[in-house]
């Protein structure tokens, strides 16, 4: 399988320790990260034409991924500042 872009470890290359700490100590982060992963994988499958979807569905998924990413980025930023 090809590399899936937008994985959290790639989006936050300088925050691997923070991501690990959040995954082990913050249940809300785990929920967000799991949903982000699922949505991101679905978008990737659509983009490489493994899975069919309407343009509207693809756009909705991209909006959801962005919303999740923003919330995750805020949590990473807060953890860096702590």
Account of the 3D structure:
There is one protein chain. This protein has one domain. The chain is mostly helical and 82 residues long. It has helices spanning 8-11, 16-25, 27-47, 55-81. The chain is elongated. Helix 2 (16-25) packs across helix 3 and helix 3 (27-47) packs antiparallel against helix 4. It has 4 helices and no strands. The protein is 76% helix and 0% strand.
How much helicity do the residues have? over 70%
Uncertain runs are none
Largest sheet: none
Radius of gyration: 14 Å
DSSP summary: helix tally: 4
Instruction: Give the number of domains.
Output: 1
**Number of E strands:** 0
Helices and strands, with pairings:
Elements: H1 8-11, H2 16-25, H3 27-47, H4 55-81
Helix pairs in contact: 2-3, 3-4
